[in-house]
Amino acid sequence: MVATKKTKKSLESSNSRLQLVLKRGKDALGYERTLKMIRQGKVKLVILANNCPPLKKSEIEYYTILAKIGVHHYSSNNIELATGCGKYYRVCTLAIIDPGDSDIFRSMPAQTSEK
Amino acid sequence: VGKFVKPGKVVLVLVGCYSGCKSIIVKNIDDGTSDRPYSHALVAGIDCYPRKLTAAMGKKKIAKRSKIKSFVKVYNHSHLMPTRYSVDIPLDRTVINKDVFRGPALKHKTQQEAKVEFEERNKTGKNKWFSQKLRF
């Protein structure tokens, strides 16, 4: 499996898209909330940090397979993901319910490693 | 993007005395009710799985080892793990419903109904995964 090295530029662009979603759209941050939203069928995309514990990662991926949602493996860790969201805590798992004005779905699915 | 927690879906119970047991969603309430303000589901599941059968066993032994003990319970969605499997057993909704938990006799009758359906399905050999104990 080739590890795609994301350049700094693309990281910044995905960050800015994330920020747009958080400002204009609806999201669920955190493992429990994402699972709840997935179960209710509201989620359009799930983003996982790269240091997400493997069991949690597998579980969320399984749920997304059942719900036919895309998963995006963010290229850095939960601290970076949270900073990208503008939060001061750590975020391992993030679900996007409504993208608002963001074009996150056009860009992210291309990088999605859906299993 | 779909709802996958639907009647007929096989789920694993994660919590309580039936944790690790496979069960089927009979009725799914997504938004909650006044006394359960969270999304929950009524499930009917297998408490004691049918045991393994071999060719060398006689009829009486097979009959004994194919017995299933079932349970009926209402669970919060976060206490269930959905799987990719689903079983379309015609569990009678008029018998298996939430009113059942009012009294033990009613509950027992419901569990009997579920047990009969599960045993029948197990005999036909379909949905094998459901009648196999989850080893963990």
From TrEMBL, chain A:
InterPro entries: Ribosomal_eL30-like (IPR039109), Ribosomal_eL30-like_sf (IPR029064), Ribosomal_eL8/eL30/eS12/Gad45 (IPR004038). It holds the Pfam family Ribosomal_L7Ae. The keyword Electron transport does not apply. Gene3D superfamilies: 3.30.1330.30. SUPFAM superfamilies: L30e-like. One of its GO terms (cellular component) is ribosome. Residues 14-105 form the Ribosomal protein eL8/eL30/eS12/Gadd45 domain. Keywords: Ribonucleoprotein, Ribosomal protein. One of its GO terms (molecular function) is RNA binding. NCBIfam families: PRK01018.1 (NF002172). PANTHER family: RIBOSOMAL PROTEIN L30 (PTHR11449). Belongs to the eukaryotic ribosomal protein eL30 family. Component of the large ribosomal subunit. The ribosome is a large ribonucleoprotein complex responsible for the synthesis of proteins in the cell. This is Large ribosomal subunit protein eL30.
UniProtKB/TrEMBL annotation, chain B:
Belongs to the eukaryotic ribosomal protein eL27 family. It is found in: Rough endoplasmic reticulum. SUPFAM superfamilies: Translation proteins SH3-like domain. Its main location: endoplasmic reticulum. This is Large ribosomal subunit protein eL27. InterPro entries: Ribosomal_eL27, Ribosomal_eL27_KOW, Ribosomal_eL27_sf, Translation_prot_SH3-like_sf. GO terms for cellular component: ribonucleoprotein complex; ribosome; rough endoplasmic reticulum. Keywords: Ribonucleoprotein, Ribosomal protein. Component of the large ribosomal subunit. Required for proper rRNA processing and maturation of 28S and 5.8S rRNAs. One of its GO terms (molecular function) is structural constituent of ribosome. One of its GO terms (biological process) is translation. It comes from Macaca fascicularis (Crab-eating macaque).
